[in-house]
Write a structure and sequence with these properties.
Blueprint: H1 3-16, H2 20-31, H3 36-42, H4 52-88, H5 107-121, E1 125-126, E2 132-134, H6 135-138, E3 163-165, H7 170-179, E4 184-193, E5 205-215, H8 220-235, E6 241-248, E7 251-260, E8 277-286, H9 288-293, E9 302-309, H10 310-318, H11 331-334
Helix pairs in contact: 1-4, 2-4, 3-4, 5-10
The structure holds phenylalanine.
The site of phenylalanine has 11 residues, from strand 8 and strand 9.
Length: 338
């Protein structure tokens, strides 16, 4: 094959090449160690000396034009390949983003924080205690002896004869009085347990917030002022409270506190069973027996205590009529409180 024919063939192949890989194969085929043009050069030795310069020039020229063609084809193909790569990697910024599902605080937690913050703003501390509690702290030191009928007020899960799942957070009050000299001003939130069957108003586990104030000259009027301030802060200024006589072994006198029904505003409805008011907490002046049990001299100190169900407060505030909604974690219900 003549120089010209080889060059023509090479240029044809170069023109048809579609990728840099193919171009490389063509380069090897013509210009590589055993390439067709390289092999032409090797024929030089067989020629007469006077023919060699012209032959050399011709082969070099052929080599040059193939190299040139390879170069410009490589450039074009690189551009094409770049463009294809860019197109393939293109990000469609018009696609909507993937939404992150946001979590939120459970309504009970929200209400707990709200109650806690009101008491914090009145200068109360927040104390916590164990959920598995000594019978002694849960009952006996609170003036509820073993076999006393008052135990019937709270149906108890017994772990053993001496250990119970706490039925209220009052044992935290006992622990506080045992460990701290008055003045004491604290609330004790937490989970409590009673052997109640689940229904719209009962749950074997629920949340309580109790409180205790002990100092010199603490009176029932201090209790009333504190509770009224709390209730107005929590429910709103126009909510009324009613203190009714009540009984708790650990307070004397004791009271139960009703507030204006938030569903009907006091007119009477199904939620308040026509009464216009709903009971939300128990309270009283700390029984001197309890102070004494906890090593405080009732001649020197007096105090008041109160306790409420956080669930009950959440229900009355938001008009929730079934306590189970608070524990079933149905997202359709919970989403309303985000
Ligand atoms: N411990 C009582 C209960 O759980 C509530 C309470 C606390 C009542 C303090 C009066 C004083 O029912």
């Amino acid at each position: 094959m003549s120089n010209d024919e080889i060059v023509k063939k090479a240029l044809g192949e170069i023109g048809a090449a579609g990728s840099s890989g193919e171009l490389n194969d063509i380069r090897v085929k013509y210009l590589g160690k055993k390439g067709e043009i390289t092999m032409l050069m090797k024929q030089m030795g067989t020629l007469a000396p006077e023919e060699r310069p012209a032959f050399g020039q011709a082969v070099n020229a052929a080599r040059g034009s193939v190299e040139q063609a390879l170069l410009s084809a490589a450039e074009k193909i690189a551009q094409k390949e770049d463009a294809a790569k860019l197109a393939a990697e293109r990000v469609d910024i018009t696609l909507p983003g993937r939404a992150q599902a946001l979590g939120a605080l459970h309504p009970l937690t929200q209400v707990y924080y709200e109650i806690r913050d009101i008491f914090l703003s009145m200068g109360f501390d927040v104390n916590e205690g164990p959920e598995i509690e000594l019978d002694q702290y849960n009952f006996e030191m609170l003036n509820i002896p073993k076999d006393h009928p008052a135990r019937d007020m709270q149906d108890t899960f017994y772990v053993s004869d001496d250990v119970v799942l706490r039925t209220h957070t009052s044992p935290v009050q006992v622990r506080t009085m045992l460990g701290q000299k008055p003045p004491i001003r604290m609330v004790c939130p937490g989970r409590v347990f009673r052997t109640d069957d689940v229904d719209a108003t009962h749950s074997p586990v629920f949340m309580q917030m109790e409180g205790l104030v002990v100092g010199k000259n603490i009176r029932f009027s201090d209790l009333k002022g504190t509770i009224n301030t709390f209730i107005r802060n929590f429910y709103g200024e126009d909510v009324k409270t009613k203190f009714r006589p009540g009984f708790f072994p650990f307070t004397e006198p004791s009271a139960e506190v009703d507030v204006t029904c938030t569903v009907c505003g006091g007119k009477g409805c199904a939620a308040c069973k026509g009464a216009g008011m709903i009971e939300v907490l128990g309270c009283g002046v700390v029984n001197p027996v309890v102070l004494q049990n906890c090593g405080l001299n009732p001649e020197e100190y007096s105090g008041f205590a109160f306790g409420m169900g956080i669930d009950r407060l959440a229900n009355t505030k938001y008009g929730i009529t079934d306590i189970r909604l608070l524990y079933e974690n149905d997202a359709r219900f919970l989403r309303q409180f985000v």
